[in-house]
Amino acid sequence: MHYIVFDLEWNQGKLGKKDRHHEQIPFEIIEIGAVKLDENKALVDRFQELIKPKVYRDMPQIIERMLHVNMKQLSQCRPFVQVCDDFLEWCGDDAVFCTWGNQDLLELQRNMQYFKMKPLEKGPFSYLDVQKLFSIDCEDGKSRRNLEYAIDFLRIEKKEEFHRASADAYYTAKVFEQLDKDVEQYCSYDVFTLPETKEQEIHKIFPGYSKYISRSFPDKASAMADKEVSSMRCYICDKNVHKKVRWFTPTGRFFIGVSQCPVHGYVKHKVRLRNHALYPSGSDCVYVDKTQKLIDEQKLAVILEKRDKVLEAQKKYQPVKRKKKQPKDQPKDQ
Known about the structure:
Blueprint: E1 2-11, E2 28-37, E3 43-50, H1 61-67, H2 71-74, H3 80-91, E4 95-99, H4 103-114, E5 125-129, H5 130-138, H6 147-153, H7 165-178, E6 188-190, E7 202-206, E8 209-217, H8 220-225, H9 227-230, E9 242-248, E10 254-261, E11 265-275, E12 286-295, H10 297-316
Parallel strand pairs: 1-4, 4-5
Antiparallel strand pairs: 1-2, 2-3, 5-6, 7-8, 8-12, 9-10, 10-11, 11-12
């Protein structure tokens, strides 16, 4: 097994150009940089190559200045498919991908799909988000810092300039080396390819919480009507338990509910309805990212307060039903 710590640089064309927001490939990869570590996190090899662009023929000056590379230099390089094929062969069959954040894996697969390459996997697969792991190991688990902040925090020597794929992959690897081995159990899941059936859906229990990733649904209503999505089982003992707070949405972006397990106490359920990167713009198709964790009475009180505010707002804006006017009695003929 090897850890493949990689970073990408990409171009999106000059501002104002018509092809700037190409829907299938909004960001075209122009450099791949990677570090290969063995199972003990010792450096084994490095990979770096610039890529000849095909989609965007211009580059914003800010990207040129940041990367110290221009389109003339890139025009002399190999195309994406050749470089990516070599990169994946270099990675090997036992690779565990590691990235700083989640966007690099998304853009790698989006570029691979655009150039009609074979997908990395047929469904969701786990990887290590070093940015998240750094937060879990060194901070509060919720904050997301930039790479240079982590380098300074861990007092790692700066030997190379930031904002080149090879250098950023190296620095990400140096951060990863210093993290506690136990944080690797907090893996992330890449959902570029969603589960196609219920059997392929992701059910994962982490220390302190659980995660469920669904197949796709045609719309939000269909998702929330699904038994697996709307259930409030205790994720520890897997039993159907008493619903303390029925599903409600504070913002419209997610739903919250609370159940009460007689053994493990209050369980908070949070359903996020997410659009997928592959769906056409404006599509209603969604998938579900559901998390569950134990909470105490104090956090339950906060949720109840939010729920009550939502209910009060709903009552306030409900249309008032007006009584129909009864027709007046017609005057009798004299």
